[in-house]
Design goal:
The chain has 179 residues and is α+β, with helices and mostly antiparallel strands. The chain has a single domain, classed as Peptide Methionine Sulfoxide Reductase, Chain A (2-Layer Sandwich), CATH 3.30.1060. The protein contains 6 helices and 8 strands. The strands form 2 sheets. Strands 7-6-1-3-2-8 form a 6-stranded mixed sheet, with helices on one face.
């Protein structure tokens, strides 16, 4: 029996419901938790506070993955190709700093890999990549109703019109990395 090599990645690609749905389909991903990071106010923020844009937090997911199955680099390539890393504080109709594209690294190795991947994917986009790369300070888990959102609400309009097409893109670009 192989020992697992569990690691974490914390990523914000707009609405956390979308990013969570993407990574729940990836081979080697053990767990995905929606939450908030990068804010400038003390205490555990609420979804309502985050949506105000006044706390400075981004909607993120914290991904626990087995590095023996999928690398951090592959996690980042999937991330950078399943959302638009070229729009500042926006993903589609979602606008505000809480929807920024961001990679929160857990150590210097992750920082280096994030910088390399960001440079490597940049030529594939017409506009410059604006994904923030910052050290993870604190991760706050989002409220229960935001966990497994897509799985629990697939017929909801936002899920049908925004998340389902992202999953189709994931399946098209990264079929070899899916469960």
């Amino acid at each position: 029996m192989t020992t697992k090599n569990l690691q974490m990645a914390t990523l914000g690609g707009g609405c956390f419901w979308c990013t969570e749905a993407v990574f729940l389909e990836v081979k080697g991903v053990e767990k995905v938790v929606s939450g908030y990071s990068g804010g400038n106010v003390p205490g555990h923020p609420t979804y309502r506070e985050i949506c105000s844009g006044l706390t400075g937090h981004a909607e993120v997911v914290q991904i626990t993955f087995d590095a023996n199955v999928i690398s951090y680099e592959d996690i980042l390539v999937i991330f950078m190709t399943t959302h638009d890393p070229t729009t500042l504080n926006r993903q589609g109709a979602d606008r505000g700093t809480q929807y920024r594209s961001v990679i929160y690294y857990h150590d210097d190795n992750q920082k280096e890999i994030a910088e390399v991947v960001s440079r490597e994917v940049a030529p594939y986009y017409e506009n410059p990549v604006v994904t923030e790369i910052s050290s993870l300070d604190v991760f706050y888990e989002a409220e229960k109703e935001h966990q497994d959102y897509y799985r629990n609400n697939q017929t909801q309009g936002y899920c049908s019109f925004v998340i389902t097409p992202k999953l189709a893109k994931l399946r098209e670009l990264h079929a070899d990395k899916l469960k």
